[in-house]
Amino acid sequence: MALTAVNAVVIGAGAGGGIVAKQLAEAGLSVVLLERGKWYSPFDCRKDDLRNQRTSVLGNGFGPDDERNPRVTVDLVGRERILGASRPGYQNNAACVGGGTLSYGAMAWRYMEKDFRMRSTYGHVPGSTLADWPISYQDLEPYYEKAEWEIGVSGDVSPDPFHAPRRKPLPMPPLPPNREYEILHPAAKRLGLHPFDIPMLRNSIPYNGRPACMRCRWCVGFACEVDAKCGTHNTVIPKALATKNCELRTECVVQEIRTNDHGRATGVAYFDPDNHLQQQDADLVVVSCGAIESARLLLNSKSRLFPTGLGNRHDWVGRNLQGHTYTGAFGLMPEPIFDDLGPGAGIAICDYNHGNPGLAGGAMLANEFIRLPYQFVSMVPAGVPRWGKAHKDFMRTAYQRSIAIQGPTQEMPVFDSRVQADPVVKDFWGIPVARLSGGRHPHTIEISTAMAAKAEAWLREAGAIQTWQRLSGPGLSAGQHQAGTCRMGDDPATSVVNRHCQVHEIPNLFVIDASVHVSNGGFNPVLTIMAIAYYASDHLVRRWKGGGLA
């Protein structure tokens, strides 16, 4: 039986797609929201250190599964590997309702004004595709505010003199400081820095009908059992469904976006939970699958008019993949400081995001989330054995004295860091898988190395008696902060979507997620994803009501 056509089909129920579905449904459009994963509760995935942290993959416990969803990676010397989703190098995002917002650390950063004007600020960086965004911070400011108040953000950025102008404070106060905060705050002040409370998509007080954070150690990579972590699964998606204009379909894998002979999207073909191929017709199609899967879907959606995939006439789909190079430093304090107060991360500085001589950008630096013992094994300094008595002795004496500072480097986008549809390997449903290749720009390594030194200096000032840096290699950067593969721009020859996230050559096809980021800032990108989703949805609704998308 043919499915009833709808006004809009949104692919991906994560940070971007959940907001888009809610905005369109509240505007009166009929919406189908497709999600390849399940709608998990915290009780589906127990708090087991080994279950969710058996690799470095954040959100690994929430899919996708290894057997059905391989990827191909190509290293810098051309060696290919086929990887399952739980393997390092896969560059996974959680596959579930809420996407990464179900299990993320939930830092809620606004980008700075200069982050949207990187080319104007720093000029051309040879070997990179560094460019200005076609929109400004001022364009997004009201939508940052909407995300902070509707989704829910706690913290206090007022002591940070570097933050961009804002009209309203955050809706919730910060969580009380933990021991690391109390040690790092005066040390930062002694160095002439400007420490402040990290903005978090996490309730510090009861908000929007959900309770405050209970300060447990299992936060990053885990779902919140008291529902205090704020994501699209417990905010905007329930609102979308409450309108009765939105239908959520889970465990649905989209094969392709279909187009007609006039070059318009007509809907999608997808496999339902029983692996039957279905066709959902729609007036509008919105792709919100994350930078790797969004690019893969566009590339796999080929037709006579679009033989290289949708939006790919100038070979920009899948290019400029970025995911944040994380570097910093670890330290050991003279006495135990572990107080078991989650989420752990609480204090940050933005003194080094810009204004570093000789560097095109920098990074926010913050203390880290609670490091579970299994994670700490991969963070020990050089020379410490990874097994045996010496390893156990170090863990016993060092774990509760450890402290970490790190941050996401402002990366230089690279044209050849990319996503392709693999010509040979297919997933369980016969769809060509993502093929990932490329590496970091050398200047990204320079910036991240400088940031590691800044982090180490902060730890030493705080009294660490032993410090060691975490540095980056030259390989591909993607991970849970993946961005850039469908970049936004005014020129169709050098971008995939316009300033409103509309694919240049297909008027009723939109990409609304971090794929559109021109650069990825020196911050966790999720609040910017949310702000862009509100911003693009507003434009889409206005165009729809004005008849401009008919």
Question: Which secondary structure elements does this structure contain, and how are they paired or packed?
Answer:
Layout: E1 6-11, H1 17-26, E2 31-34, H2 49-52, E3 71-74, E4 80-83, H3 118-122, H4 137-152, E5 154-156, H5 179-190, E6 196-200, H6 236-242, E7 246-249, E8 253-259, E9 265-271, E10 277-287, H7 291-300, E11 326-332, E12 347-349, E13 365-367, H8 373-376, H9 388-398, E14 402-408, E15 418-426, E16 432-437, H10 442-461, E17 466-470, E18 509-511, H11 526-545
Parallel strand pairs: 1-2, 1-10, 2-7, 3-16, 10-18
Antiparallel strand pairs: 3-4, 5-6, 6-12, 8-9, 9-10, 11-14, 11-17, 12-13, 13-14, 15-16
Helix pairs in contact: 1-6, 1-11, 4-11
Task: Give a description of the structure.
The protein is an alpha/beta fold and 550 residues long. The protein has a single domain, classed as 3-Layer(bba) Sandwich (FAD/NAD(P)-binding domain). The radius of gyration is 22 Å and the shape is globular. Helix 1 runs parallel beside helix 6. The strands form three sheets. Strands 1, 2, 7, 8, 9, 10 and 18 form a seven-stranded mixed β-sheet that branches. The chain has a seven-stranded antiparallel β-sheet with strand order 5-6-12-13-14-11-17. The two termini are 26 Å apart. Strand 8 and strand 9 form a beta hairpin. The model has no long low-confidence stretch (mean pLDDT 95). The chain contains eleven helices and 18 strands.
Which key features would you list for this structure?
alpha/beta, 22% helix, seven-stranded mixed sheet, globular, 550 residues, 11 helices, FAD/NAD(P)-binding domain
